[in-house]
Every structure is written in structure tokens, then in C-alpha cells.
Design goal:
Helix content: 25-40%
Bound molecules: pyridoxal-5'-phosphate
Structural class: alpha/beta
Shape: elongated
Largest sheet: 8 strands, mixed
Radius of gyration: 22 Å
Strand content: 15-25%
Number of strands: 16
């Protein structure tokens, strides 16, 4: 029995994802980094670092976590805009730094280079491969603040010719939960726009959003994309997936607190976990998390709307059906809860943070428990 609510990280599932990723690395020679913003439970960094080439960070704190818990592995960082006050430490612990604009490259590029870092620039290849309703996840959407277009790149290096020789690589990140056909579409545009500069570079970074460990992912097409850059231009190729590393490698266990019956409406089960606090992507993406032993409404005889215990009317996880009626004390287990969950949770409404367990070959180990002090301490 576990204390609810809690996340359970499935070490065996993580290992099998890492095996898929290491296959890609072995067959193509590419390097794969963990995007820490998706999953930063550093207790698993020794395992992840034993397979992957390192990690990438969205800022100083994630970079520090990689530096401390994946020692000796590559430590990359990207930010839409770096802060001067973070730069000294960043430059002392990172191996690669990727800038988001010509201005940031001009501000910090020379210094980064002098400290021995490899310097990159994020490109916006301006090819949207995500549906319009997904535009908050589309760095190629009109007006994007992420990455430099070809026109901005060429204006920049003609105004400041000293910047081009600072660059070791180009980076693009345009995908979210996508297959390799969309990567290929993006790479075609990137290559068409930037091929004349690739000979000056050492590497290209394909960003994240590659759903490599999903069962229908087309790995051979990904590998052809990688080899096109490594064999065609002599470039090292980096991928920095988050989701693919920990996909389906975690669960969220929760208890039913109360069943409500309302006239003319689906029955409601109030859980001891909150969408808003413990799985915010359910509301933000939005998506319907998988739930063990459940079906869509209509599939099984007993249907419920599952809601959280906060004040937010929209703190609803979704509608599900079951073989038997739910009752107080029942434990429900949501799947795919390793990614974008622990890293995004919060204590809105004074909600307790879920404990974290690590499951290794069927053994459950309590890794972390949180208390009132974790709520109070941030305020
Ligand atoms: C979010 C992000 C990633 C990881 O994306 P996943 O969808 O989790 O694979 C990698 N690189 C950058 C720059 C990102 O913003």
C-alpha cells in the first residue's frame, strides 16, 4: 500500500525507454540528452546518465542539477533570454550554450567561447507541423519569440560579421509529441534555408518533441534524418527529448474521497488528487490521462466525472467508466504521470504535494514525502 496521492516512477519502464534511445545512438552516432524540464527526479539521473550523453537545461537551476547529479556528462543550456547575474555560474558548469537571438549572442557569445563552451543559436525554420489549436506548443506559430528566422540570421551576421565565427552549431526545436515525418518536414525546410552555413558548424541540435519511445514512432525515418546531417555535412547530431525518456514510466495513485449524485448529471467522484495541482497539463494541454481499469463513458456500466478537492470549478480530470461502482476509499491509478507532472506541481489551495515512490523490479521504495513545511516554506 502507498500513501495517496503519490507518484510512482517505474524504473523498469524507464530502462526500456533508455534501451530504445540507446539503439538510436548506437546505430547513428547521434547524442541524446534528457530535457530536464520534463522530468528532473534526479534520483534517476545515474541511470539516465549511464545511457544518454547528458542533459539540457532551461536555466541555471536545471543546469546545476545536471552538474551535480550527472557528473561528467554533457550539460547544455538554452533560454529565451539569459540573465547577466546567472552567467558566471552557467559558464562554469555548462558545455553548450544556445542563444535565442542575435542580440543575446552578441551580449554573451564571446565570453562563453572564452570559457570553453560550444556556442549555438536557435533557429526558427518557420514550418508549423502542429495543428492550429496547438499553437501554445508551436514555436513556429506566427509571432513566435523562439528562434531566429533565416532573414534575421542573415541580417544579424551581415551587421555583426564577428558573430558567425562564434557559432559551433545551430539548434531548432519545433515539435511536441510528434513522429519523425514531422521532423523530416522540418529538417527539409531547415536544410533548404541554412545549408550554406552548415559547413561552418560542428553540430546541429534537433531539439525535443520526438515521441521516439511511442509504439508507432517511425525510428528508421528518424535515423535517416540524423544520418543526412552527419554524413552529408559532417555534423554531430543532438536530440534532446523529455517525454520520450520517461514516457509511460510513472503513475499517480489517488483515493476516492466522496461520491456525489446530481439530478440530470453524470455522477462525480472527488479524489485526493487535483488536476490543477498535481497534473496541470491535463488542464493546460489539455488531455485525458489514461486510468487503469477504466474506459470511455459508455464503454463500461458505471460512469463518473473525476474531480479534485480544490476550489476550482474546472478542477476536473475527465469522464471515465468502470466495471463496478466507485466507492469511498477506492484507489485509482493514472498512467503516464512521470512526465511534466512532478516538475509542474504546486500547492494551490494549500494542497499537499504527492509523495514520490520508485518502483524497481516490483519493489516500492518511498523516495520523498512532503509536508506543511513545503507549502509554507515557499511563501
Ligand atoms: C520542451 C523542450 C524540449 C523537450 O521537449 P519534449 O516534448 O519533452 O520532448 C527540448 N528542447 C527544448 C528547447 C524544449 O523547449
Amino acid at each position: 500500500m502507498v500513501n495517496t496521492p503519490c507518484y510512482v516512477i517505474d524504473k523498469d519502464a524507464l530502462k526500456s525507454n533508455l534501451k530504445v534511445l540507446s539503439g538510436v545512438m548506437e546505430r547513428t552516432g547521434c547524442k541524446i540528452l534528457l530535457a530536464q524540464k520534463c522530468f528532473s527526479c534526479y534520483a534517476l539521473y545515474p541511470l539516465i546518465g549511464s545511457t544518454l550523453s547528458g542533459a539540457t537545461a532551461s536555466g541555471l537551476f536545471e543546469a546545476r542539477l545536471c552538474h551535480e547529479h550527472m557528473p561528467g556528462k554533457e550539460n547544455h543550456i538554452f533560454s529565451p533570454a539569459f540573465r547577466e547575474e546567472d552567467m558566471e555560474e552557467i559558464l562554469s558548469i555548462c558545455d553548450h550554450i544556445v542563444f535565442n537571438s542575435i542580440r543575446q549572442l552578441a551580449l554573451f557569445g564571446k565570453r562563453a567561447k572564452a570559457c570553453g563552451l560550444q556556442v549555438g543559436l536557435r533557429i526558427n525554420p518557420q514550418v508549423s507541423t502542429q495543428p492550429a489549436e496547438h499553437s501554445i506548443y508551436d514555436p513556429c506559430a506566427p509571432g513566435s519569440r523562439l528562434g531566429v528566422t533565416l532573414e534575421e540570421f542573415e541580417d544579424g551576421i551581415s551587421s555583426y560579421p564577428e558573430l558567425l565565427p562564434l557559432l559551433d552549431g545551430l539548434h531548432f526545436h519545433t515539435l511536441c509529441e510528434q513522429n519523425s515525418d514531422d521532423l523530416e518536414t522540418t529538417l527539409n525546410a531547415f536544410e533548404k534555408q541554412f545549408s550554406s552555413y552548415l559547413g561552418l558548424m560542428k553540430w546541429v541540435n534537433f531539439g525535443g518533441g520526438h515521441h521516439i519511445t511511442r509504439s508507432d514512432y517511425d525510428i528508421p525515418r528518424l535515423e535517416r534524418c540524423i544520418l543526412r546531417m552527419s554524413e552529408g555535412y559532417g555534423l554531430a547530431v543532438y536530440l534532446e527529448p523529455g517525454e520520450a525518456v520517461a514516457l509511460n514510466a510513472g503513475y499517480l495513485h489517488t483515493k476516492v474521497l466522496e461520491i456525489q449524485h446530481h439530478k440530470g448529471s453524470i455522477d462525480i467522484a472527488i479524489l485526493d488528487t487535483s488536476a490543477a495541482c498535481h497534473m496541470p497539463d491535463v488542464l493546460e494541454m489539455p488531455y485525458r490521462p489514461p486510468l487503469e481499469g477504466s474506459g470511455a463513458v459508455g464503454e463500461k456500466p458505471y460512469a463518473y466525472r473525476l474531480g479534485g478537492p480544490t476550489c476550482l470549478s474546472g478542477d476536473i480530470i475527465g469522464d471515465y467508466s468502470f466495471d463496478a461502482p466507485l466507492k469511498e476509499g477506492d484507489v485509482l491509478v493514472f498512467g503516464d504521470m512521470a512526465i511534466y507532472s512532478m516538475v509542474k506541481n504546486n500547492t494551490f489551495n494549500g494542497m499537499p504535494l504527492p509523495s514520490i515512490y520508485i518502483e524497481d523490479k516490483g519493489n516500492l521504495l518511498l523516495h520523498k514525502e512532503f509536508s506543511y513545511e513545503d507549502f509554507k516554506g515557499r511563501l
